[in-house]
Structures are given as C-alpha cells and as structure tokens.
Amino acid sequence: MFGNLGNMMDMFGKMKDIQARMQEAQQSLSTLTETGESGAGMVRATVNGLKQVIKLDIDPDMVKSIGTSNDDREMLQDLVVAAINKAMETMEPKIREHLRKSTEGLLPNIPGMDLGSMMP
C-alpha cells in the first residue's frame, strides 16, 4: 500500500519539475527572434517567440514615395501585414523546436503529444 503512495509522491514531484521546466521554456521564448520581409525587403517585421512584434523597419525611400492616396496607404498597410505574417509563420517551427529541446527527457515520448501546442 505504501509503495503506491511513494509512486504517487514521485509522480507529483516529477509534475512539479515538468511545470517548472515548461515555465522556464516559455519565459525564454522572448529571446527567439525571426524577421519577415515584404516588398522586396522594403518592409521588415521582427517578432519574438512570444508572438510579439518587436521591430518594424520601413525603407525611408518607400516612405518618401508614399503619397496621401488611399491606394498608397493600403499598399503600405498590406506590406506591413505581409511582413508580420511571414515572420510569425517562420517563428512557429522555432517555438516548437525550442520547447521540445527545453523539455526533452521530462516525459516519455508519446506519439501525437506536442508540448509546443501547450504554449500560447
């Protein structure tokens, strides 16, 4: 009877370790960055592993050439959105790989279990 209790205590201890490692892994996501470009590099957006835009660069020559028309404004807006989307798209696999490496060996390899999907 006490053997089962000991096994349960071990399991709870491991769960605390897993929780702590997952929290550390999530906090370290802010150090990952990825940049996406659009408009032949005239617009660049950089995001971090927390899926936050941390930098936006727009070529000064492009800014000078943009007029006040709705078409010009919409084009710039579309380029900014495209650059952010590209950065986010390329960040996703980096996040999954980072979380996989950070939690390696904590849990048995269960097919179909993706720890990366457990993070925001």
TrEMBL record:
It holds the Pfam family YbaB_DNA_bd. Homodimer. Binds to DNA and alters its conformation. May be involved in regulation of gene expression, nucleoid organization and DNA protection. The keyword ATP-binding does not apply. It comes from Rudanella paleaurantiibacter. InterPro entries: YbaB-like_sf, YbaB/EbfC. It comes from the Bacteria. GO terms for cellular component: bacterial nucleoid; cytosol. This is Nucleoid-associated protein F5984_01325. It is found in: Cytoplasm, Nucleoid. The keyword DNA-binding applies. Belongs to the YbaB/EbfC family. Keywords: Cytoplasm, DNA-binding. PANTHER family: NUCLEOID-ASSOCIATED PROTEIN YBAB. GO terms for molecular function: DNA binding. NCBIfam families: DNA_YbaB_EbfC (TIGR00103).
